Amino acid sequence: MLEPTLLQIIWFLLVTILLGVYFVLDGFDLGVGVLSLFVKDSHSKRILMNSIGPFWDGNEVWLIAGGGAIFAAFPVVYATAFSAFYLAVYLLLFALFFRAISLELRNKVDSRGWEKFWEISFGVGSLLSLVLLGVAFGNILRGLPLNDSKTFTGNFFELLNPYSILVGVFGLIMGLMHSAIYLATKTTGELEQKYQKLSNVFYIVFIISYLIITMISIFVSKYLFDGITHSPFFWVLFLLLLVSFVMIPVSLNSKNIKKAFTFSSISLFSIIGLAGVGMFPKLIPSVTNLNNSLTIMNTASTEKTLLTMLIIALIGMPFVVVYTIYIYKVFKGKTEIDKESY
User: Tell me, what's the pLDDT at 89?
Assistant: First the structure.
């Protein structure tokens, strides 16, 4: 069996980090869209939409960066994943596009019917995006049907298996908890109190569903747990996850909502990281025969390509990080509605 090179390992870590950051950032703004479906009055809906207004497009940059990293470093994985999730990817893109234009078009016509249509589009697009991402992630954890030539042999309906749907539901629950805590930091008055209460409710559901998914994964995706405790990354991420599990309710009960959001972010990133540790060095496991899996060794670009792209990434990614930090710093605080708002 081929041993992974240092550059292959670095790119695996980089892809995991990029996707982890994406799920943390877009997790709360997609969740806000879902929660907007359960808000009745137009003013409150506007507050929710504008709470993510400065951030949502920047958050999605991390998904593009993650996809680009996979394309550059592991092109076979990129091709196989997009072949397997062809219809799902189109549905996801449609949902993301529709929620994006709903933010821009909602206030362009002075008609309550027009506004309501785009408000519903914003919520439904967010819900579909969050669930599709979770289902896709569940299929990766479970594995795809790959033959001896490592070609995808399944179809769209096989992707809608019970395990992936459960992971999709869990992804929705994660997003709802994360976004409820976020909204508690961005709203005032009754809305703030409402989302503080919902944060506690969603946290309990989140913990229970995480334990259930973990137990099911032991039987469905046993490979995730093979030798996982030998990795130092596992222990770091596991401890971070445990600390965040404890500190989220502690912070919520002490009304330190910003700290609760920080620990909620850590919990989401740790879960993605732990999944990465369990999968390493696999990128797409084969559910039919684990030996047919796509790994960082049999799908990577040449060492020269990996090195060149790493240099480009090290030059470009700091700009993305600085921009993200700057935007969140400029638009910190409670959300206010003015004539420029959505």
Answer: 87
